[in-house]
Each structure stands twice: as structure tokens, then as C-alpha cells.
Amino acid sequence: MIDLSTPGTLLYDSAVLSSYIRKNTKESFGYIFFDNIDYITKLYNDNRMRDVTYKNILDTILCGSVYLGFDTYECPDCGFETTIPHTCKSRFCSKCAAKSAKQRSISISAMTFSCKHRHIVFTVAQELRDYFIRDRSLLDLLFIASRNTISALANDAKFRKNKRLEKHRKLRKSSSPYLYKDTKDNVVFGAILLNAKLNKKKNKENSQNKRKSLIKVNE
């Protein structure tokens, strides 16, 4: 069995996989990685490639093979066995990435309202990309900043109102890096300021009904 944990083993034992991987399908990233595995392994041995990147490339090459694990099903009547190999579930893989993207789009579509939406993409400026390459933990801060930017735009009116209220009462402060996390009926990703409007309308109707009932009692 091929030991993928040892660098370079795949180079010499790739003949075992070539007959299995080479199927009558269109070219994919797995084929490209397989044809350039010598160059990829050289980059990895020279410490010019991260461990997680090298592992994803190997998993993409072996996607759908028994080397990533498999499940065996046996018929209790006739004893016929069927072996289903595991997929790599990597974003590098054309098949697995497409399946994951479809599942994600279906999940997001189920949460959104039937109305027009705007798609916003945040990118890293070319002058700052070297910093993110050296320290990938900065990507977490990038997502926080992107989220806070959208929340600030959507909750700008509420933010100004809270600023005015600070003069009269002390607002609850949070240690979270996310803005508007603890505010009521705030607008966040995938949400629309609909509940706040409905609650405001409902509270107004309740107050009017209370006033009417008080007037009737007084009469």
C-alpha cells in the first residue's frame, strides 16, 4: 500500500495508481497535479509549499480511490459485495468543490427572502498580499473587518441613535470584535431589517389597543 505520509513515495509508486485514476473523463485538476507531481514534490521538499497544500494536492489526485478509504456493502441474500471509495472533499478537486458549492448555495437560498440581493466581494489589495501570505492569521481579521463594514452600513441609523442615548444611559459594551452583535434586531449577513419593522408595527398596534381599552374603561 502507498504511504502518502512519506514525501516522494507517490513518485515511485504512481504506476499503481495510473491505471486506476486514468478514466475516460474530461481533464481535471487531479490530472494536472498528477502530470506535474515531480515539480510539486520538489517545491514541497524545498519548503516552498505548505503541508496543508501538499496534502490537498495528494488527496485531489487520489480522489475516488481506495487509498482514501472505502465503504463495503454486502447483500445479505446473495453475498454480492460493492466497494465505494471515499472522495477527497477538497476545494482543489473539481468534482468535490462543485458539489460543495451547490450544497452551500441551496442552504443559503433556503435562508434568504424572495427579493433582490446584492453580492459584495471583499478582496485584499495587491500591496498588502505579502503580509497575508506571511501571516495567514490576518485573514480572520479581514473577515471581521468585512463583516463589521457591512453591519455598520446597514445599522448606521441605529448607531447614531445609540450614540445619542449614551448621554442619558450607559449602554452594554461587549468584548467581541464584531460590531452590533448584542444589539436588538440588528442587520447581519443573510438577514434583512424585517423583524424590527414588524415588531415596531406590532408594538404600535398594541399600544393603540391599550389606549382604546383604557378610554372605554374610563367611560
TrEMBL record:
Tell me which InterPro entries the record gives.
Zn_Tnp (IPR026889)
Q: Which organism is it from?
A: Massilimicrobiota timonensis
Any Pfam family from its record, for instance, is Zn_Tnp_IS91
Q: Which residues form the Transposase zinc-binding domain?
A: 41-124
- Know the name of this protein? Transposase zinc-binding domain-containing protein
